[in-house]
Amino acid sequence: MIDLTSLTQARDALRKREFSAAELAEACIAAAERARPRKCAAGS
Fold first, then answer.
1. What angle do CA 16, 21, 22 make, to 5 degrees?
2. DSSP code of residue 29
3. For residues 42 and 44, what is the distance between their CA atoms, to the nearest angstrom?
4. Three-class SS state of 43
5. Helix 21-35 and helix 7-15, axial crossing angle in degrees, nearest 10
6. Is the CB of residue 38 less than 8 Å from the CB of residue 31?
7. Can you give the pLDDT at residue 38?
8. Which of 9, 19, 29, 37 could form a disulfide with 23 if both were Cys (CB 3.0 to 4.6 A apart)?
9. CB–CB of 17/25 below 8 Å?
10. Pick from 4, 8, 41: which is nearest to 23 by CA?
11. Alpha-carbon span 16 to 30, nearest angstrom
12. How many CB atoms neighbour CB 7 within 10 A?
C-alpha cells in the first residue's frame, strides 16, 4: 500500500519508480472513498 501521509514522499517515490502514477492515483481514490461518509438508504 502506498503511504499518502506526505505528498513530498509520494512524489519522491514516484520519481524513484517505486510505484506507477496509476498506482498512486488508485491509492488516492481508495483513501478518498474510505474518508467519505456513507449515506444510509434506510429510512429514505
1. 140
2. H
3. 6
4. coil
5. 160
6. no
7. 73
8. 19
9. no
10. 4
11. 22
12. 8
